[in-house]
Amino acid sequence: MRKILMTAMLAGGLALGLAGVAAADEDMFKAMDANKDGVLTKDEFAAHGMQNDFAKYDKDGDGKVSREEFDAVEAAKVK
């Protein structure tokens, strides 16, 4: 019983941790999106000292980073 309880607590903590990461990513994306158009540009990355990371986030090469692209890169960091 104790082992089951410990496993449940660990799983719950992990879920809360991942939810916290998602919330932090959302806050980061919103903070970086200076013009609030829902995508990030090279200039917006540069304004946060992340100009060298832009290509890694711009998966489709269209010159802007969507919320989905941003989230995918951030989620891969957690794994």
Report on this model:
There is one protein chain. Helix 1 runs antiparallel to helix 4. A two-stranded antiparallel sheet has the order 1-2. It has helices spanning about 1-30, 40-45, 55, 65-79; strands spanning about 40, 65. It contains four helices and two strands; from the N terminus they run αβααβα. It is mostly helical and about 80 residues long. The protein has a single domain (about 20-79), classed as Recoverin, domain 1, CATH 1.10.238.
CATH H-level name... which superfamily?
A: EF-hand
What is the share of helical residues?
Answer: 55-70%
Q: Tell me which oligomeric state these chains represent.
A: single chain
Give the topology string: H per helix, E per strand. HEHHEH
The total of beta strands comes to 2
Unreliable segments of 5+ consecutive residues? 5-16
Radius of gyration: 16 Å
- Main-sheet strand order equals 1-2
Category by helix and strand content: mainly alpha
Strand content: 5-15%
So what's the overall shape? globular
On the 0 to 100 scale, the average pLDDT is 80
Using the 3D structure, state the CATH architecture.
Answer: Orthogonal Bundle
N-to-C CA distance: 29 Å
> Which topology does CATH recognise?
Recoverin, domain 1
Largest sheet: 2 strands, antiparallel
CATH class descriptor name? Mainly Alpha
Number of domains: 1
Task: Figure out the total of helices.
Answer: 4
